[in-house]
Amino acid sequence: PPKRAGRQPVVAGAPPAWLFAEAARVATDEAVQVLARIHGRSPSLGQGLRSPMAPVPPR
Fold first, then answer.
1. What whole-number distance in Å separates Cα of residue 41 and Cα of residue 3?
2. Which of 26, 28, 32 minimizes the C-alpha distance to 58?
3. Cα–Cα distances in Å, from 55 out to 4, 7, 14, 40, 47?
């Protein structure tokens, strides 16, 4: 989690925004990898799915 300047008010029961961002990034990474595996890692696949802020490292 990023360092915060002071405590930010959080709605009861709602996880912080960074948790959503991390979960979305992980889900996107996994989805791209699964699609790449299914489609034989075609280079054109997943360009629209990849977030420019969170590129998927080649494995």
1. 37
2. 32
3. 25, 30, 27, 19, 10
